[in-house]
Amino acid sequence: MSDADKAVTHELTVQRLAGEMFREAAWAALGTFVLGVVVSTVIWGTAGLFGSLIGGAIAIGSSLATLLLMRKTAALDPMFVMVAALGGFMGKLIVLLLAVILLRNQSWLEPKALGITLVATVLVTSFLEARASKRSRSQMVVPASEGA
Question: Does 93 map to a domain?
Fold first, then answer.
């Protein structure tokens, strides 16, 4: 059975969208992360290096978690996908809150480097994922006919 013969399902649509979002944002996210690490290291030294490494890792991990969540819940009813998305968002906020609480007074890292790299990477990744979603042709679901 060829791809053209397969019925377009919600699962296939979400899987395809997650792949398109990953391809659109992956290199730009890594580039933003590396740029943040280099600039932070030049400005703040080793503390900037550690701060930007942690900030970039949180940002990229957050993006990858979103795409993984999309892939893992694609076969579920769309209502459960939205519940999982909300749960994933809350989970990311909790991780960010814990990182801020645990790392706030650490002398070995620069909080500005962490914050700037985190925000820059999240903004670039989110923008490119949204652009991929908008450009995607995979969001149109054509239900299979009753006789098929």
Answer: yes
Q: Is the dihedral of CA 73, 76, 77, 83 positive or negative?
A: negative
Answer whether residue 143 is part of any domain. no
Q: Residue 115 is encoded by which pair of tokens? A: 């914050």
HEC sequence for the chain: CCHHHCCCCHHHHHHHHHHHHHHHHHHHHHHHHHHHHHHHHHHHCHHHHHHHHHHHHHHHHHHHHHHHHHHHHCCCCHHHHHHHHHHHHHHHHHHHHHHHHHHCCCCCCCHHHHHHHHHHHHHHHHHHHHHHHHHCCCCCCCCCCCCC
Give the pTM. 0.81
Averaged in consecutive runs of 10 residues, what is the pLDDT profile of the chain (148 residues)?
57 85 90 97 97 95 89 87 85 87 91 94 90 74 59
The parent domain of residue 63 ranges over: 9-133
Contact yes or no for 121/60 (Cβ under 8 A): yes
Q: Please tell me the distance from the alpha carbon of residue 46 to that of residue 54, in angstroms, as a whole number.
A: 12
Total count of domains within the chain: 1
